[in-house]
Design goal:
This protein is of the alpha/beta class. The chain has a single domain, classed as Alpha-Beta Barrel (TIM Barrel), CATH 3.20.20.70. 23% of the residues lie in helices and 25% in strands. The protein is built from five helices and nine strands; from the N terminus they run βββαβαβββαβαβα. A nine-stranded mixed beta sheet has the order 3-1-2-4-5-6-7-8-9. Helix 1 runs parallel beside helix 2 (86-94). Bound molecules: iron/sulfur cluster (SF4). Iron/sulfur cluster (SF4) binds next to loops.
Amino acid sequence: MPQQNTLRISEIFFSSQGEGLRAGEPTIFLRLSGCDVRCYFCDTKYAWDKGKADTAENILKKIKKFKNLTDWVCITGGEPTIQDISNLVHQLKESGFLIQLETNGRIFKSLPLDWITLSPKPPDYFFASEWRKNVKEVKIVVDKNLSIDVVEKIARSFLEIPVFLQPQSMRKWSIKKAYSLWRKGIQKNLKNLRLGCQIQKIYCIK
Ligand code: SF4
């Protein structure tokens, strides 16, 4: 188990945000290790492993090396909320960063975040209701089992914000399915449904 103030990290790197409304924006990624769901379609399975333990202070130092490139830090995983990220988030805020959190939403954390991307996962697509009020966007991965009923239920829970249908790893069958679900959703008056993509896959970047 990590000691207090220590987090298990998979990687830290600078790139473009590839998904959702912030796609194309320069972003520093902090990928934490471990996940409580382990989806069969996960495209960051390498982050399920233990990773490397590091202190919040050291992580902050590494992130600051990219500060001249952007203010945005995206905390992702794995699933970042299974670790205690509170100290790190507060230190990042004190250092002037803007923070995006990508979460499957199963565990709620009250944190000073600038952008929350909620991506509920199968089989139950559960998320803690406390996230609801501050979420900026929702992403649903279009896997083989995703039904229009699940899409509709989630989209109706977030009528005020965009709900992205994100093709699974940009596979062709999933892109086709995303479009078909989007058409069906629009016919059901789900005006917040959006077609998503992963521009990191198109540009062959991390
Ligand atoms: S919740 Fe996210 S990180 Fe975890 S297994 Fe699913 S896709 Fe991968």
